[in-house]
Amino acid sequence: MTTRSLEPSLWQNAWYPVAYLKDLDPTRPTPFTLLGQDLVLWFEGSSARWRALADVCPHRLVPLSEGRLNGAGELECPYHGWSFNGEGRCTAIPQAPTDSNSSPQRSQCRRYATAEAQGLLFVFAGEAALASSEPLPLVPVLEEEGWLVQDTFRDLPMDALTLLENVLDVSHVPFTHHATVGRRENAGPVELELTSFGPQGFTGLWQEGPRRGKLGSQFTTFSAPGLMWHDLTAKGFARILTVVYATPIRRGECRLFARFPFQFESALPAQLLRLRPQWLQHIGNHTVLEDDQVFLHWQERVLEQRGGSQAANRNCYFATSADRYVRALHDWQNRYAGEPFPGQPLKPRLNRDQLMDRYEAHTCHCRSCSAALRQLQRLHQIGLVLAGLGLALTAWMGASPAGAVGLLVAAAAVGLRWQCSRWITGLRRGSGLAPRNR
User: Fold this and answer.
1) Alpha-carbon distance 201 to 195, whole Å?
2) Where are the alpha helices (DSSP H) in 195-277?
3) 276: how many CB neighbours lie within 10 A of its CB?
């Protein structure tokens, strides 16, 4: 396929999710990097809106995300106290006399347009004045009532397009995710159809659907440049979506937002799902993501060495219709979008231990998981105290009912510490051993 020169505006002039609203702290600024641009996210009380500014003070170029929200509810630079409102206008320069004629234009911070929808905070990567002409990348059916949505996110060591290629590829699930969300015995021919294709993305149909037709037909939508979802209805059970946003951070890094909405036909499954704490769900989500994280991180470096997406058809053997969505993604990129980071090479490959980090990639940014980690660490210490007290009681009382109680307390405390240790580790890092290989 012949490619043509492409403007980078498609990637820049687009909305991207940067955080779930429930994970943001309205009392402090939060840093985020979008398409290589460092942003600071913060809640402006006077407008009751989440704001995004360039994360650099125009005075001495330090990160505003290291600052605070001052008494006026504005963003205050940590270095010299310059303050900014949600429009990026500098409202206070403590070092300037009241009659100062300092340039208001040079003291301004770049403002990025923001929007809130479907539980997410979106930022427009291009000029704020152009934001109103571009629609938010939303999943229309989620506007309907009756959905139970399970959410997770993680910063991944791969390009957004590598992630999208992976989640569009339905045929890898029985093998890569065997023993987590797939089974090898469910593998078989996958006949995918493209039902539309153009600059805004594409749609597709898998008539038979997963598990050799046991769950019904699956419909797929890729909404350019960073959203895709699968939609299937398992008769007698639920309508199930798999929604993935791939937000480009910088070359070789993206933030995954994964959403799993269910419309159950019975109330019981929803009630059971609500019983599981979100942080425990997230530990399970990490395990699934790590099923293929290592080889996807390596795969994109091989593709880069062999010419990148433009050479994908030549270097990858797309032998069956199971690869139709993957081919369509590369086709869309080469026809309409180009590279999000043109001319920027990937960084050297990370080792397996680095790829298993969960704390920096998720836990420290997640309200549920960071709170659970603190509580589990406290329980772990309480378990040590209880074990000591139980053993002391046993030693003091000897072979008596009270001594037996002390022994039981010590045993329960040891069990508590063991389980807490497992969960603490699960919130901090993965094992590096995919369940399919155990």
Assistant:
1) 11
2) 210-213, 267-275
3) 11
Residues 233 and 22: beta-carbon distance below 8 Å:
no
Local structure of 309: helix, strand or coil: helix
Reduced to 3 states (helix: H, G, I; strand: E, B; else coil), residue 363 is: helix
Q: What are phi and psi of 193, to 5 degrees?
A: -120, 140
Backbone angle region of 215, left / alpha / beta, with phi > 0 → left and psi within -120 to 50 → alpha? alpha
- Look at the pTM and tell me if it is higher than 0.90: yes
| Of 6-15, 278-287, 406-415, the least confident | 6-15
Closest CA to 134 of 145, 143, 148, 123: 123
The pLDDT of 23-28, averaged and rounded, is 97
Q: Is the peptide bond before 225 cis (omega within 30 degrees of 0)?
A: yes
pLDDT score recorded for residue 2? 37
d(C-alpha 407, C-alpha 395), whole Å: 9
Residue 280 burial (10 A CB sphere; 0-12, 13-18, 19+): middle
Please give the Cα distance from 426 to 280 (Å, whole number): 9
Amino acid at 31: P
Encoding tokens for residue 392? 């002391």
